[in-house]
């Protein structure tokens, strides 16, 4: 590795940490893209090598799951679930446990970044209405999404890449990672609860959250597809990327939602995933 590569790496890494480059209108996605362009422009990586470095099966698997997530988002599932959860008449520490359990399960089945992006604004709204400090709950959401995503090979892009590259067994990995993931969620809940020490209340302005209206039919379609995907991943050796892409194709053939809406929403979610 030469000096040029080290400098480009340092530039990209600092941009990722800061979330931007001071003085430039670049987010993390832009910083990563600029770093890749710099490597090509300085001939540190050839266009052929850069193209071969892209793991196509992982990209296809991620895109397929993004379309499924878009189905849930456009059907108002995330908003409906988060509002029902935040309105539950239970003690704050119990609500924290419920939130982490739900976020952990969703993150194991769908990309964890999407769960955070979809649930966080509505969670803040629910906490503000109940006069609860949203910070512990947002921390719990972020931590639960990361811990929960480790349970399966489709929980986050890193797991997808590792699973695809090493051709790992979906049920075998789930058996190995399930118990540590559950224990991790319990530990995170205990740590956040201990840090709060009963100081749950805080008055904050109620934000105006604009979200799709809950649609039972569209949500049911999404639940059926994700259940089908998990079942296929568990009991068959079929390529996960092809199965996920087929499921996405089935959802795109909707009579009520335009494919451009699906793809636009999927692209938004993917952009949010890469920027976080």
Molecular structure report:
- The protein has helices at 3-18, 28-41, 47-52, 56-74, 77-86, 92-109, 112-129, 134-149, 157-166, 170-196, 216-235, 240-252, 259-275.
- It is 74% helix and 0% strand.
- The longest helix is centred in the middle third of the chain and has 27 residues, at 170-196.
- The chain is built from 13 helices and no strands.
- It has 276 residues and is an all-alpha fold.
What string gives the helices and strands in order? HHHHHHHHHHHHH
Question: Structural class of the secondary structure composition?
Answer: mainly alpha
Strand content: under 5%
What's the β-strand tally? 0
C-alpha Rg, in Å? Answer: 20 Å
Mean pLDDT: 88
Question: Major β-sheet, in short?
Answer: none
Overall tally of structural domains? 2
What oligomeric state do these chains adopt?
A: single chain
Helix content: over 70%
Number of helices: 13
Whole-Å distance between the termini?
A: 27 Å
Low-confidence stretches are none
Q: What best-fitting shape do the alpha-carbon axes yield? A: globular
